[in-house]
Amino acid sequence: MAGDHHGEEVRNKQVLARDYIDGNPKEEDMYLSTGTILLKVPEGSNAVLVKNLYLSCDPYMRGSKAKVKDRLFNSFAPHSPIVGYGVAKVMDSGHPDFKKGDLVWGVTKWEEYSLITMTESLFKIQHTDVPLSYYTGLLGMPGMTAYAGFYELCSPKKGEYVFISSAFGAVGQLVGQFAKLMGCYVVGSAGSQEKVDLLKNKFGFDEAFNYKEEDDLDAALKRCFPEGIDIYFENVGGKTLDAVLLNMRLRGRIVVAGMISQYNLDQPEGIRNLLTILYKRVRMEGFTVYDYYHLFPKFLDLVLPYIREKKIVYVEDEAEGLESGPAALVGIFSGRNVGKQVVLVAPE
């Protein structure tokens, strides 16, 4: 018990995992429960107690058949709240960098209130003239993924030909807009006609196609890129990557941010066209956003003015209430969401 101030004990609605999971989550892997929590950080602890406002649904929130050791955290553990990124308000703090009333984004839990001990993954929100939910996506981890992947690894130049798979996801929509702002020719693939239309009309992509409607991805890419591809921002892997390899230009770059098509397979699909890497001197590199968080201030300096000047647009799909979280999370693996999927837990 903390010193003299016991803090108020309140009910705490939670979404818990039944067990570790293999592959993509299903609704029955999660259940709702109500516990209680003290709105006080234990004496002598440097943890932070927060009220969660928004939770983020992201493709890494799944079980992995190979127990990946280099992950920052696992989202699913038996009878524990789901772990993921979110936006929260500080209620009590034992940490010098955070005080009561601060708004933060970072790794939290799927519940109304959380005691966060992993404070190194919390960022203080300084700019509140943009919607707070943006810090689960555009201004959070996916935004940083887009920024680091595009500017730090793609080495883009004006006029280059850029292809983005899963272009309507939180990462893809931003990479596409960065590329357009730089004067590149940009094409995206997505999984529905609605998304394709939005990519072209709302995000300013030069061309887009629905990969589910294309029998021959190589032909689709040749139609969109008669001159070939300089930069491929990889989010899906599998057949798409294989087709892209056939269309890469000399000294092209493939930057791997994710491979959502492969996450759930017992046997990953083979890639046949790797010889292109040799013939065309292609550079292919994977990265993780955790290595680039030190650039966060630089990222905000670039993106915030673009948002304020409406030069960057952003589409979110908001589910309301903690209880709608499981279905929202499951939905992103089949592309049911239109834009970045967030869960509103409590109004600001």
Structure commentary:
The protein folds into two domains: 9-137 and 315-344, Medium-chain alcohol dehydrogenases, catalytic domain (Quinone Oxidoreductase, Chain A, domain 1), CATH 3.90.180.10; 141-290, NAD(P)-binding Rossmann-like Domain (Rossmann fold, 3-Layer(aba) Sandwich). The protein is 22% helix and 27% strand. It contains eight helices and 15 strands. The protein has helices spanning 141-153, 170-181, 193-201, 217-224, 238-245, 275-279, 296-308, 325-331, and strands spanning 9-17, 30-38, 48-56, 83-93, 103-109, 113-116, 122-124, 161-164, 185-190, 207-210, 229-234, 248-256, 283-286, 316-320, 340-344. Strands 3, 4, 5, 6, 7, 14 and 15 form a seven-stranded mixed β-sheet that branches. The model has no long low-confidence stretch (mean pLDDT 92). InterPro entries: ADH-like_C (IPR013149), ADH_N_2 (IPR041694), GroES-like_sf (IPR011032), MDR_fam (IPR045010), NAD(P)-bd_dom_sf (IPR036291). Keywords: Oxidoreductase.
Strand and helix layout:
Elements: E1 9-17, E2 30-38, E3 48-56, E4 83-93, E5 103-109, E6 113-116, E7 122-124, H1 141-153, E8 161-164, H2 170-181, E9 185-190, H3 193-201, E10 207-210, H4 217-224, E11 229-234, H5 238-245, E12 248-256, H6 275-279, E13 283-286, H7 296-308, E14 316-320, H8 325-331, E15 340-344
Parallel strand pairs: 8-9, 8-11, 9-10, 11-12, 12-13, 14-15
Antiparallel strand pairs: 1-2, 3-4, 3-6, 3-15, 4-5, 5-7
Domain Oxidoreductase N-terminal: 13-118
Protein name: Enoyl reductase (ER) domain-containing protein
Keywords: Oxidoreductase
